[in-house]
Amino acid sequence: MTETAHDRLLIIDFGSQVTQLIARRLRELNVYCEIHPYQNVTMDFVRQFAPKAVIFSGGPDSVTREGSPRVPQEIFDYGVPILGICYGQQVMMHQLGGTVLSGHGTAEFGRAYVTPSDERIDLLGGWFLENKEQVWMSHGDHVSVIAPGFKVYGTSPNAPFAITADLDRHFYAVQFHPEVHHTPNGKTLYENFVRIAGFAGDWTMGAYREQMVEKIRTDVGDKKVICALSGGVDSSVAAALIHEAIGDQLTCVFVDHGLLRKNEAQEVVGMFRDNMNLQVIHADETELFLGELEGQSDPETKRKIIGKLFIDVFQKYADGIEGAEFLAQGTLYPDVIESVSFSGGPSVTIKSHHNVGGLPEKMGLKLIEPLRELFKDEVRALGRELGLPDSFIGRHPFPGPGLAIRCPGEITRNKLNILREADAIYLDQIRKHGLYDDIWQAFVAILPVRTVGVMGDGRTYDYACALRAVTSVDGMTADYYPFSHEFLGETATRIINEVKGINRCTYDITSKPPGTIEWE
Ligand SMILES: Nc1ncnc2c1ncn2[C@@H]1O[C@H](COP(=O)(O)OP(=O)(O)OP(=O)(O)O)[C@@H](O)[C@H]1O
Ligand SMILES: O=c1[nH]c(=O)c2[nH+]cn([C@@H]3O[C@H](COP(=O)(O)O)[C@@H](O)[C@H]3O)c2[nH]1
Ligand SMILES: NC(=O)CC[C@H](N)C(=O)O
Ligand SMILES: [Mg+2]
């Protein structure tokens, strides 16, 4: 749990697929909230968290099943407004004396329409302007008897108790999901709820910045902090924030593993050292990384070598910084949620994303994670607030192992040079056509295959490359970007004409799943 001076809202997670969206909607309303799995929510926890309001999420279980999830009964005497959504509504009704049934004929999946009762309540301000409201349903169980003290304020064909409330106690319960896109007016419902609960809407990036700067100063005191700086959005924003708090007590280590894009090292180091006055160690470890990778062609072996070298290198530089007691990382809120995820069963390893993951334990350092509470778009907003240039904030994500995973099979310096040139032209094309910000990530992969071509009446036998560009929200799923044929033709021509060593160009139209974004 994080200490903050803001009004706080507690979301109790029963494992809905869309619980994170509740948090998104609330953050958009400048309300500070945290998601906690129901198993962790004891009354002691609630008192310590001191929420101004509570939301119960949806979930896959059925309250009719013995042993299914519950909230502590005393939470209903805690005296703050509560909103129950779907499973959360059912659990509220059940625990307060209503009845929930599993039965045929009452399931609703997808779009439904709710009509209002005669009495309009504050929760529904801005709703029912046309006497009905589109909502998104996803339930098999239904409430058959509402709990004492509740009244009905909205009905759908299969959910006679679609919206109910106990106005005296400020308990609200809805069968549908107001957090999803397909409940078009859902955000208004949250807005009304937090207004009823008296939230000041004080969660802004300006306030966050001030508060975090204070917290970092107190935590660090006169000790030193090191930060693994990649030039990516997360570590850049974390470094800028910590620098504002403790200035020279921060040292950043930027590892140049020889697997960076064209001009990347100069841009990153230049930006932080010259424009932001940060102490940046430019660790040129090209020989070390490329040496160890020589002759290796298995994707996981390559990743493991790089992961280990990152740690070795980091350790080497940290040892040289006297008094370093803290390690800063750019962990984001989705990373935190994933690690305490409700349905966190054993999943298969598709690939090892680790970079500098094992560092803190090995080095005996304390962690500083000033972005732990933020979503990626909030991190970008904070970066703007801190004065980082847009060119840095809007950057596409770039993986820690860099070009190594865009060069399937064995890596050679020659292939890396060809790849860097082709990639630079591709990105130049994307920028020139004004497409950079519409794309989540774009890059070239050099393929481990050579093909025959004819150029200037001569025979060529050179590498083929693949262009990749995807749209995505979080990198977990992705679709290929629908470039025009004209754009693709022009770009292929430029790459083949301008890059010595490539004579064929393809466009990768695989989505994720079944593909992954990177080629390895
Ligand atoms: N070349 C590098 N030098 C130093 N640290 C690195 C390097 N590459 C990656 N890291 C570390 O690994 C972490 C995770 O990398 P990741 O790519 O997920 O985040 P990011 O680079 O900060 O942001 P983005 O997701 O926008 O690329 C980084 O925050 C950084 O601490
Ligand atoms: O920091 C990182 N270290 C890694 O080892 C790594 N592997 C993939 N990626 C990035 O993660 C996102 C999803 O990539 P995949 O679909 O290829 O798994 C995409 O944004 C990838 O660029 C990495 N990032
Ligand atoms: N989406 C939900 O919360 C579903 C709740 C419960 N599992 C049902 O089917 O009714
Ligand atoms: Mg990165």
Number of strands: 20
Shape: globular
For the largest beta sheet, what order do the strands appear in spatially?
2-1-3-4-11-10-9-6-7
Structural category is: alpha/beta
Main sheet record:
9 strands, mixed
Q: What's the CATH C level of the largest domain?
A: Alpha Beta
**Ligands present:** adenosine-5'-triphosphate, xanthosine-5'-monophosphate, glutamine, magnesium ion
- Work out the strand percent: 15-25%
Summed up, the domain count is 3
CATH fold name of the largest domain: Rossmann fold
Distance between the termini: 36 Å
Radius of gyration: 27 Å
Catalytic activity: XMP + L-glutamine + ATP + H2O = GMP + L-glutamate + AMP + diphosphate + 2 H(+)
Binding site for ATP: 230-236
GO cellular component, one term: cytosol
Enzyme class: ligase
Structure, explained:
Mean pLDDT is 91; it is low at 341-346. This protein folds into three domains: 8-196, Class I glutamine amidotransferase (GATase) domain (Rossmann fold, 3-Layer(aba) Sandwich), CATH 3.40.50.880; 205-393, Rossmann fold (3-Layer(aba) Sandwich), CATH 3.40.50; 412-507, GMP Synthetase, Chain A, domain 3 (2-Layer Sandwich). Helix 6 (233-246) crosses helix 12, helix 8 (286-293) runs antiparallel to helix 9 and helix 14 runs antiparallel to helix 15. The protein has 520 residues and is of the alpha/beta class. It has helices spanning 19-28, 43-49, 87-95, 186-196, 205-220, 233-246, 264-275, 286-293, 299-319, 333-339, 359-363, 376-385, 390-393, 413-432, 485-498; strands spanning 8-13, 32-37, 53-56, 82-85, 99-102, 108-116, 133-139, 141-145, 151-156, 159-166, 171-174, 224-228, 250-256, 279-284, 324-328, 366-368, 441-455, 458-471, 479-480, 502-507. 32% of the residues lie in helices and 24% in strands. The strands form four sheets. Strands 2-1-3-4-11-10-9-6-7 form a nine-stranded mixed beta sheet, sandwiched between helices. The chain is globular, with a radius of gyration of 27 Å. It is built from 15 helices and 20 strands. Strand 13, helix 7 and strand 14 (279-284) form a beta-alpha-beta unit. The structure holds adenosine-5'-triphosphate, xanthosine-5'-monophosphate (XMP), glutamine and magnesium ion. Residues 230, 232, 397-398 line the site of magnesium ion (MG).
